[in-house]
Amino acid sequence: GEQFPNYYGSLTQSTTIRLGSNTEGKEIHIPFNTILPMLHPNDIVIGGWDINRANIGEAMERACVFDYALQEKLKPKLSKLKPLPSIYYPDFIAANQEDRANNLIPKGTKQQDLEHLRNDIRTFKRNNNLEKVIVLWTANTERYTD
After folding, report:
1. pLDDT averaged over consecutive 10-residue blocks of the chain (146 residues)?
2. Rounded distance, CA 71 to CA 79, Å?
3. Torsion angle, CA of 58/143/47/44, rounded to 10 degrees?
4. Residue 76 in 3-state DSSP?
5. In angstroms, what is the C-alpha Rg of the chain?
6. What domains can you pick out in the chain, each with its CATH number?
7. Which of 24, 117, 122, 144 could potentially form a cystine with 94 if both were Cys, beta carbons 3.0 to 4.6 Å apart?
8. pTM for the predicted model, two decimal places
9. Which residue ranges run through the membrane (predicted)?
């Protein structure tokens, strides 16, 4: 059946830290996540861009990175995630990616492309009622060369 995270072994969610001792000398421990303001892992919202419109479940299968049994567990949830259209600069990306580039923002200047991405971030933040957005760049940052 469906499993839910318990965070056993999670440093931020299940660990305690020694705060000190009381007047009787007994050690006092408090949850680690109470000493610093931390986001609970269940409150993380994931989104992103890709030049291919395949949902994340399909992309995971195509990439062949995860073990098949793990893919089967992840696919129902990941298939609900669809990437936003992305920027495609053919001179920056390997030529073998051109065939899968079917999820693109309208071609504009680089400044217009940047503003499009910024607007996507603002919309994502507003639609998900988020205080903060953290963007992780997980693609290659080097121009493709033959």
Report:
1. 82 90 96 86 93 96 94 95 94 85 95 98 98 88 69
2. 11
3. 110
4. helix
5. 21
6. 11-38 (no CATH), 45-127 (3.40.50.720)
7. 144
8. 0.78
9. none
